[in-house]
């Protein structure tokens, strides 16, 4: 199936390069371009892409607020582009429900692979920083005692299999990798992931990984 992508990036030269790479990839269609966050949200509502490739620092509406709107309205998956300063923008995008984070220095093959990964329902964090983002995020924003108790109560609603899957999400494994570990069909794993995210009121697999690390801390 064709992956329909909306590219949101305020630097025209960078945006043109991203569009060029994606348009050359088999099975990927660029359905729109936006130079600011407000336009990105408007186009997401209009075009309903499978994925929004979102810069975090944009005029009018930054990528964090735009991500929050896109995810809250279930318009598309969001793959965030960043220079990766590990600042409040990146942390904000994670809280907003971004499904993945990608460095702007990524090469063409890495960009296309990331788009395919996130569009397929997996989360992705640039291998250059691996899970450092999640670890630092959890350390910088430790859950309060009341929040931890609430999280523990929510975890009690998970089935044993869903708890297993959650643990693997905390390790950053993909659906295919989890399926191999548990000897399950990948579609079955996707169902478990969807159900556990709903029970825990989480918007993305990356948020699930943060929760695992907070509870381990």
From TrEMBL:
Residues covered by the HTH luxR-type domain: 151-216
Keyword Ribosomal protein assigned: no
PROSITE patterns in the record: HTH_LUXR_1, HTH_LUXR_2, RESPONSE_REGULATORY
Keywords, alphabetical: DNA-binding, Phosphoprotein, Transcription, Transcription regulation
One Pfam family from the record: GerE
SUPFAM superfamilies (alphabetical): C-terminal effector domain of the bipartite response regulators (SSF46894), CheY-like (SSF52172)
Domain of life: Bacteria
GO biological process: phosphorelay signal transduction system; regulation of DNA-templated transcription
Domain Response regulatory residue range list: 4-119
Record-linked CDD domains: LuxR_C_like (cd06170), REC_NarL-like (cd17535)
A Gene Ontology molecular function term of the record: DNA binding
Sequence positions bearing 4-aspartylphosphate: 55
Name of the protein in its database record: LuxR family two component transcriptional regulator
Organism of this sequence: Kitasatospora viridis
């Amino acid at each position: 199936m064709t992956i329909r992508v909306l590219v949101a990036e305020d630097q025209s030269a960078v945006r043109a390069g991203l569009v060029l790479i994606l348009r050359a990839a088999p099975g990927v269609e660029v359905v729109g371009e936006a130079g600011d966050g407000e336009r990105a949200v408007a186009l997401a509502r209009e075009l309903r892409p499978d994925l929004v490739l979102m810069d975090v620092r944009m005029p009018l509406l930054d990528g964090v607020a735009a991500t929050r709107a896109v995810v809250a309205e279930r318009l598309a998956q969001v793959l965030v582009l960043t220079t990766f300063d590990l600042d409040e923008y990146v942390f904000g995008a994670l809280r907003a429900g971004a499904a993945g984070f990608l460095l702007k220095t990524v090469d063409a093959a890495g960009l296309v692979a990331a788009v395919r990964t996130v569009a397929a329902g997996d989360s992705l964090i640039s291998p250059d920083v691996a899970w450092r983002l999640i670890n630092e995020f959890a350390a910088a924003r430790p859950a309060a005692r009341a929040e931890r108790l609430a999280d523990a109560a929510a975890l009690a609603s998970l089935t044993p299999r869903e708890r297993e899957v959650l643990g693997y999400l905390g390790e950053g494994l993909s659906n295919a990798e989890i399926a191999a570990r548990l000897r399950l069909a990948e579609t079955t794993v996707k169902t478990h992931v969807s159900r556990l995210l709903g029970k825990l009121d989480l918007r993305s697999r990356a948020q699930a990984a943060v929760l695992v690390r907070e509870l381990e801390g």
